[in-house]
Amino acid sequence: MPDGNGTIAVDIDNVTKRYGDFTALRDVSLAIADNEFFTLLGPSGCGKTTLLRCIAGFEDISAGAIRLYGDPIAELPPNRRPVNTVFQQYALFPHMDITRNVMFGLLRLGKSESEARKRAGEVLELVQLTQFATRLPAQLSGGQQQRVALARALAPNPKVLLLDEPLSALDLKLRQAVRLELQQLQHETGITFIFVTHDQEEALTMSDRIAVISDGRVQQVGTARAIYEEPNNKFVADFIGETNLIDVAVAAIDGATATCTLPGGAQFTCPAASGAHSGQGHLSVRPERVSLTDPAQAPLSGTVSRLIYLGTDMHVDVTLADGETVTARVQNSADTTIPEKGQTVGLNFEAGAARLLVD
Amino acid sequence: MAKKPDLRRFPGFYGITLLCLFLLYAPLIIVAIYSFNDSQSITIWGGASLRWYEDVFWGLEADKFKQAAVNSLTIAVTAAIAATIIATMAATAMLRAGSFRGKGASFALINLPLMVPEIVTAVATLIFFSAIGFTTGIMTILVAHIVFCIPFAYLPIAARMEGIEDVYEQAAQDLYATRWEAFRLVLLPLMMPGIISGFLLAFIISLDDFIITNFVKGAGVETLPTAIFGAVKQGIKPNIMAISTLLLLVSILFVTLSYFAGRMGQNRQ
To answer: What is the pLDDT of residue B2?
Structure first.
């Protein structure tokens, strides 16, 4: 958490949201810190946008509480919550020019016309749109409209800014540029950002912390690095990046260390996610941490079933004796020996590269 | 997607098109042309002249027609305004209030008047007015017109509102607007093309109505359609053609305005 002043900006306390028989959010609890760039990441339909809409006030929650800097807000209508939203479709008012769009929130807060105009000018300068101030939204490109939506939401200086997949309508190049701008904007303004996305790359590159959400539940909360390197369960390991999930028999768990039997019979000791239990389990090993070695000295071995050339590196699919496939990502450097299809190879990885997951 | 068949290649396309256009518009064109006839006869051409237009404005029956025109316009404007306000409120309730009990029934009730035979509405309205002791006159016409104009105003307003995503109102509320401010400052301006279309359509429907008006109007109160009908009963004079042509022009003008109002909104989004 940045700054580490320990203040909680948004406290989501056991929030449940039901639509009839369908439960969109189940007992979600999150503590989002002041001045944090916090991302809600998950596949479409996982409940991340619903959670954002509950914070904004467009959805009532079925149970639980939402507090903003300690004040309960779940009962307030959206216009009485000091948070602003950047909508996925931007939702700029098509009948107002850019300045009027940005002034809207300020005027509703009771600021005078001249005050609002001055502040709108400042914010438009911040997002570098000063020269478009008198245009209508339809006269701007997608990227410019996105920045207007950002300026409009920032103008009233909200305590928390909610961003609902704001980059999804932009093309790749622009998206990458805007990521940096957003991050910088967050640092400059010191406003807490809650960012919703289904794009893991976006989440990994921008966020201070990420909450991975699936099926209406928070699967894991942590920094990009923690989520990628120490996934808790199968969903997180599989959703963030690529991974090999290897079936193992878990003999014993001692604190955070598991002893298990790999397919083929080799014993292996590695870190275990908290909550992992003995019996049948899954090891997660990232392809880039798997190396190809002499089959005689490796804990796992199999035959090469497929080679995918990717330029900077190569994916080698190895089929084990029990039919499972493990992928190794081999760097394409001068001294790499590329195996041939059908060849028997050994697969090696360090204990620290593997992790026993909660199933 | 399959290529759309070219309609113009169907056998007889041009023939059928011309026949339809002829049947639809030939009577109107003939009336418009013969309104400039110099002759007393309605069928024999006697050279071009504006005498029947003069007759409409300054002739023997001019006062009667003027009074009818004033009545017609007053009723049409008032009825259209009232119907548009009611239709806008109805559309807001139907499309923005979420689901409520009796929503399906409300939708049917709003649109039912379009399907009830007008003569039935006319008789029912007259019986209703006499049952409650409402003296027939200009007020009875006005009330009846407001009622049957509502569905006509509702259709373009609701169509427009359906096309406006509710994210705009959410954005407004997110930016500290109350529900009323979100409606007034965002939804209403975006709906304006639909509201204008609805108003113009209601206006034309009211201006043009004969059956219901004829039933509920009091003795001596005339609107243009009832005045024209009354005049025709005593034999068709060419001045009727002049009035009809004028009424046709007003209709064309309003339909055109309504069309452009609809277009205006599309360009904006």
So the answer is: 58
At residue A348, the 3 state secondary structure works out as strand
**What's the burial of A283, exposed, middle or buried (CB within 10 Å: 0-12/13-18/19+)?**
buried
Size of interface A-B (CB pairs under 8 A): 64
Torsion angle of alpha carbons A111, A95, A163, A218, nearest 10°?
110
Distance of CA A204 to the CA centre of its chain: 6
Contact (CB, 8 A) for B264 and B193:
yes
H helices present in A127-247, as ranges: 142-154, 172-189, 200-206, 224-229, 234-239
Q: Which ranges of chain A have pLDDT less than 50? A: 1-3
Q: How far is CA A12 from CA A52, A65, A163, A211, in A?
A: 11, 6, 17, 12
More confident residue, A238 or B269: A238
Say whether A95 and B190 touch across the interface (CB within 8 A).
yes
CA–CA distance, A39 with A204 (Å, rounded to integer):
9
Q: Which residues pair with A11 in a beta bridge?
A: A31, A67
**Nearest residue, CB atoms, A79 vs list B167, B178, B190:** B178
pLDDT of B105-140, one tens digit each?
888 888 888 889 999 999 999 999 989 988 778 899
In chain A the domains, ranked by start, together with CATH numbers, are 8-229 (3.40.50.300), 242-357 (2.40.50.140)
Closest-CA distance of chain B to residue A84, Å: 6
pLDDT band at B265 (very low <50, low <70, confident <90, very high): low
Shortest Cα–Cα distance, B192 to chain A (Å): 11
Give mean pLDDT, residues B247-262: 84
By C-alpha distance, the chain A residue nearest B179 is A79
Residue B101 backbone phi and psi in degrees, to 5: -65, 135
High-pLDDT (> 70) share of chain B, %: 97
Residue B269: pLDDT band by 50, 70, 90 thresholds? very low
> What does the mean pLDDT of chain B come to?
88
pLDDT at B266 over 80: no
Look at B172 and A89 and tell me if their CB atoms are within 8 Å: no
